[in-house]
Amino acid sequence: MVRVLIIGNSDLPERNLVNDLIDSSDKIIACDGAVERCLDASINVDYVIGDMDSLENTTLAELSKMGIEVRKLDDQNNNDLQKAINFSSEIGADRINIIGVEGGSNQHQFASYWCLFETEVECYIHLSDSIVSMVKNGRVKLSIEKEKEFSIFAIGDCDGVNVSGGKWQLSNEKLTPNSRGLHNLANDATITISCNNGMLLVFRSR
Q1: Structural domain count, the chain
Q2: The whole model's pTM is what?
């Protein structure tokens, strides 16, 4: 199994979580200027990907000398996170963890959630207070501490939605984009969420 950690150019969660994700990763990708945050934090990076418009103190030549592979991609149809996710798929990733998307522009943070739906690879965004993932025409089991909150949000119309393991359960429901799925509570250490047709965004509290 190939696990990839993608680091965005925004605020990182607490260092213990970052260290755990680093230790469990086979490859680490920095999005553009995030590589400088990584260097400052002594995080070893394998690749830096993006259009390289956010580098401030480090040149591409210096990065290459450090053994970091530079992938300069000028594609304006995708943001740097999407470029990194696409590249992760190319190198055979089975699971992608993402950090460094909190803070900064709200527009960029919102776009990060949409990136989850652009890959078939198991993909998670780690925020300071929650883990964000998606369900797309399928079924997933997710671990969570009992009594922790979780929320599911429909992205468009969703048919055949089922939720078990929570205080409020759903059985073959139709969901539309609204706040109905906000603040469920986990009754078990595992919640199961499925959607026959459509896409769901899932937030699990830490």
Answers
A1: 2
A2: 0.93
